[in-house]
Each structure stands twice: as C-alpha cells, then as structure tokens.
Design goal:
The protein is an alpha/beta fold. It is built from nine helices and ten strands. It has one domain: 3-Layer(aba) Sandwich (Rossmann fold), CATH 3.40.50.300. This is Phosphoribulokinase.
Length: 301
C-alpha cells in the first residue's frame, strides 16, 4: 500500500451495484478536485469476446466445466498485480480498455477496434492522484498473485446470491438473447470459481455494501421482476470502524429509517444506497487525499 500513490478498489459482480459506487466516486473525485486513473476489471480479462467463445468451446471439448470469467484461467491476475505494485511505487503503470458496445467503440473506429475487443496497452499519466479500480477482482489473492496487499481502500459490493442470479437471468434472457437453460448452465459453470475466487475477497474488504431484497426471491428462476431499490435494504459492514473513525450517529441522523444491526454494521433503505455511499466514503477519501498530499510534501522537503 502507498500513501503517496493510493489505490482504491471496488470489487463486485455485474449488477451488484458497482456502477452506483463508481458514480458516487466520480462525484466525490470532482468535488474534492482529485484526478483518478480509472481501471476497469474487464480490461484484465485474458481473452476478447471472440477468443473467449473459442476458449469456452475448447473447455467443453476437454470436459473442463468450470472455465469462466471468474477464475484465473480467463484473467491476467499477474499483470493486474504488476499494475497495482507499479502504481503504488511510482504513480505509473500500463492499462487498456475493453470495448463493451458501439458507443464505446466510436472513438476507436479509425484503429479498427470494435465491441468485444481491447485497446492497446497504454501508460497511465504521471499526474494522477489515485488509481480507482472497479471490477470482479480488486482484492484477488491466489497462489501466484496478491492484488489485495497493494490496495489502500477495499470496497465490496455484492447482492445476496439469489438476487444476483435474478439479475443475471433477466439481463441475459431479455437483453442478450440467451435461453434460461443456457443461463442456468453458465451459473453452474461459474459456481466453482465464484466460491474460490469471488467470495473470499469479501473477507478482505474494508467496507461491504450488500443489497438485500425484502420481497420473495426464494426461487430466482421463476422471478418475474428484479426487486427494485425500494424493495431492498443495503447492509453496510465496516471491517474495522475505528480505522476510519466512522461517525455512526451522524449516518443514522442523515439516512432516514436506517439502523444499527451490529456494532460495525448499519442498514439503510435501498433507495438511499448512493447517498449512503457518499456520506460513508467522502470523509475516508478526504483522509486518503490528505495523507497523499502530506507524503508528497515530505518527499520533496
């Protein structure tokens, strides 16, 4: 970890609420005048979209039924740790983009880069104040790689498992054209890597935001709709509240209908998730930025 070149990692699967966290941080970065180097987890997938489909076919042929985007075989964990280590030491490092759709591809048309492809690796500018990672593996630890040890602020964003499945089933069947059987097979194939590489990260996170529906999600495969924010609660757990000097009375006052469920856990209405994130994270971000400025002054004095 580095006070001079801090790293913030938001870890969570698609649909978990990581986009809400990213938007909250963008607001905070703008208000606090912080220039962040943004790194998306998708950019450290090993394969582009076409190559991943071919790799999946080869995995099926070899009876490798646990191959998925969640595990080390489909990701560049060593390269990601190298980026974290380099940024923490120098404020630099290499990153690239994964192009998800036509809108994101528009600036790269002249380079022949389209949806499902990566941009070339490029150097991070030297004038950034922090690195902000958002994706599946911000706190990944394997036998060969340990990204978590380089991260100054680790944030987990995860829904309860049935809600995560409901979101995936609806997204893949309604917007990506997959059958329910194909989505079910994907969920089963990912389960090994989910248990061994996704879940263990949340015991390392400093703060977890977990969305919990208050409607019946007992069978996600027959759910007609995704529970809305107003049909959910958000459980916010601090691993070490004293480290961040969390002002729970202030949070309870500012977040209507919130309550403490444990000494290190506050529960807020789902519709207040974005506000809760900014109230919780702004003081922490300010402290990280102050420590960064002090570390840089000490180095130059």
């Amino acid at each position: 970890m580095s006070k001079q070149h801090p790293i913030i990692a938001v870890t969570g699967s698609s649909g978990a609420g990581t986009s809400t966290v990213k938007e909250s941080f963008e607001h905070m970065f703008r208000r606090e005048g912080i220039k962040a180097a943004i790194v998306e987890g998708d950019s450290f997938h090993r394969y582009n979209r076409a190559d991943m489909k071919r790799a999946m076919i080869e995995a099926e042929k070899s009876n490798h039924r646990t191959f998925s985007h969640f595990g080390p075989e489909a990701n560049l964990f060593a390269e990601m740790e190298q980026l974290f280590a380099t940024y923490g030491a120098t404020g630099g490092g290499r990153r690239r983009l994964y192009i998800h759709n036509e809108d994101e591809a528009a600036p790269f048309v002249d380079q022949g880069i389209g949806p499902g492809q990566f941009t070339p690796w490029d150097e991070i500018p030297q004038d950034t104040d922090c690195l902000f990672y958002e994706g599946l593996h911000g706190c990944i630890v394997t036998q060969d790689s340990n990204c978590a040890r380089h991260v100054d602020l680790k944030i987990g964003v995860v829904p309860v498992i049935n809600l995560e499945w409901i979101q995936k089933i609806h997204r893949d069947t309604r917007h990506r054209g997959y059958s329910e059987e194909a989505v079910t097979e994907t969920i089963l194939r990912r389960m090994h890597d989910y248990i061994h590489y996704i879940l263990p990260q949340f015991k390392l996170t400093d703060i977890n935001f977990q969305r919990v529906p208050v409607v019946d999600t007992s069978n996600p495969f027959i759910a007609r709709d995704i529970p809305t924010a107003d049909e959910s609660l958000v459980v916010i757990r601090f691993r070490k509240p004293d480290r961040f000097e969390v002002d729970f009375p202030y949070l309870l006052q500012m977040l209507k209908d919130s309550w403490m469920s444990r000494r290190n856990t506050i529960v807020v209405p789902g519709g207040k998730m974005g506000l809760a994130m900014e109230l919780v994270l702004t003081p922490i971000l300010r402290r990280i930025n102050e420590e960064r400025q002090e570390a840089r002054r000490s180095r130059t004095s």
